[in-house]
Amino acid sequence: MTGSFTVSTSSRCQLIDITSDIQDAIGESKVKDGIVVAFIAHTTAGITINENADPDVKHDMLMHLEKLVPQSREFHHAEGNSDSHIKASMMGSSVTIILSDGRMNLGTWQGIYFCEFDGPRTRKVWIKIIEG
Ligand code: ZN
């Protein structure tokens, strides 16, 4: 099963928990055991798995990414969003998670985050669910 859903972001850099959106797609697919792949077809947004318990983790990740790769006039890319491209590559463009009994085998404190680095925009997340 292949599907997609949209994410509307509200600021330039933002982490949005999309775990329940992906779990909903798994539920609709009726697949119990296999893998799910979530893929981001954008060059200034990414996806990552990290803690979803303490919201300070999201804040600290964004703050430190901004310190590591600030917006800079030194970049050559004419769009002025080279920092967004670099941050997107640092996070990656896909995650793969094992499914058991219709649920993702995420750790207790793990959530799946859509990572916006050049918002606000409407973005698309692709989902592939493979039984096996
Ligand atoms: Zn660009």
CATH class category: Mainly Beta
Considering the protein shown, what is the CATH homologous superfamily? YjbQ-like
- Indicate the radius of gyration in whole angstroms: 15 Å
Ends distance: 13 Å
Structural class call reads alpha+beta
- What's the rounded overall pLDDT mean? 97
User: What are the distinct ligands in this entry?
Assistant: zinc ion
Q: How large is the share of residues in beta strands?
A: 35-45%
Our count of domains comes out at 1
How many H/I helical runs?
3
Per CATH, the architecture is Sandwich
Pattern of helices and strands: EEHEEHHEEEE
Verbal overview:
The protein is of the alpha+beta class and 132 residues long. It has one domain: Jelly Rolls (Sandwich). It is 27% helix and 39% strand. It contains three helices and eight strands, in the order E-E-H-E-E-H-H-E-E-E-E. It has helices at 19-29, 55-68, 82-91, and strands at 2-8, 14-17, 34-40, 45-51, 94-100, 103-104, 110-116, 122-131. The strands form two sheets. Strands 1-8-3-5-6 form a five-stranded antiparallel sheet, with helices on one face. Strands 2-7-4 form a three-stranded antiparallel sheet. The chain binds zinc ion. The site of zinc ion (ZN) has 4 residues, from loops.
